[in-house]
Each structure stands twice: as structure tokens, then as C-alpha cells.
Amino acid sequence: MEVFSEFLAGIDDPFHRERAEEVFTWIKKKYPNLNTEIKWKQPMFTDHGTFIIGFSVSKKHIAVAPESVTITHVEDDIVKAGYDYTKELIRIPWNDPVDYPLLEKMIEFNISDKANCSTFWRK
Question: How far apart are CA 26 and CA 106, in angstroms?
Fold first, then answer.
């Protein structure tokens, strides 16, 4: 997780920093084969050179970016979790619980769906 240390250090609010680190640590423990990378100044997890899931932070939330195909795939679960979302990202308010089963569903979908993908993003 050393790859994310500079990103995490840049999060001013200690609670936000702790929450982001908690999410990243959970993913790394659950999916040890995923690579941790910083691209476009954002932390992300990749598999065989293809994007699986990425994150960004703001004052109000941590944003999860799994690609639009994945958001469409889990849209009902996003609504059930009560998260605000667009076609490209999901906003998890800092004070709301993280729906780890939802994160798992998105990551599992992307790992499976992109198993034979040879590009970073879906075409």
C-alpha cells in the first residue's frame, strides 16, 4: 500500500484519510493479486494491465469509479445502498457506512468481465 501513501498524506481531514485507507486496505487484503497504482493523480487497482476500480476524494465523499458498464451492472445495488451516482462514479459520503458487498460485486464483475481485456479501459 506504499504506492498510496503520498495520496493518503494529501488528505487533510484525518477521518477522511483513515476511511480512504480502510477501503484501500480492505481491497488489497480481499484481492491481493490486484496491483496498486496512481494514475492521473488517483489511486486505482488494476489486473494484468487493465483498470478494475479507482477512487478520488472530495470534502463530502470518497468517489468510486468502476467504469460505466459496471455502474449499469450494479445500479440497483447502488440505489439500495442510498449512494448518489452518475454514469461514471459513485459517491460515498464520508459519514455513511461503506457497502463492502457492493464494492466486492463491482470488483468481481470487472475482474471477470475484463479477464481477456488487453487494454486499460474497455473499448
Answer: 14
